[in-house]
User: What shape does this take?
Amino acid sequence: MLIRILIPLLLFFVSCQTKNEEVYLSKSSMAAIIAEVELVQAVYKLQQLNSPIDVISITDEIYKRNNTTKEDFNRSLRHYSQSPKDIDEIYSEVIEILVKKQVGFTR
Assistant: This one.
C-alpha cells in the first residue's frame, strides 16, 4: 500500500522539477567573438577622426554571424569569468587568433 502512494508521489516530484541548467557558448566561440570585437574596436580607435564606424551595429552583426546574441554572450562571459582558468584559456585563444590575423596582414 505504501509503495502505491510513494511511487506516484515520487514521479510527480520528479516530473515537476524544471531543469535550470543554462547553456553557455563554447570557449572557442567566445574566443572567436572576442577577437572579432577587439579588431572592430581597434579599427574604431584608428579611424575615429576620419570616418567613424558604427561599433554597435558591427558588434551586433558579429553576434548574429556567430549565431548568438549580446545577452547570451554576456551571460557566458560572466559564467567563464567566475573561473580564472577558463577565462585565461579563452583569452589565450583570443591572442592566438589575433596573432594569426596579424601574420596574415604582414604577408
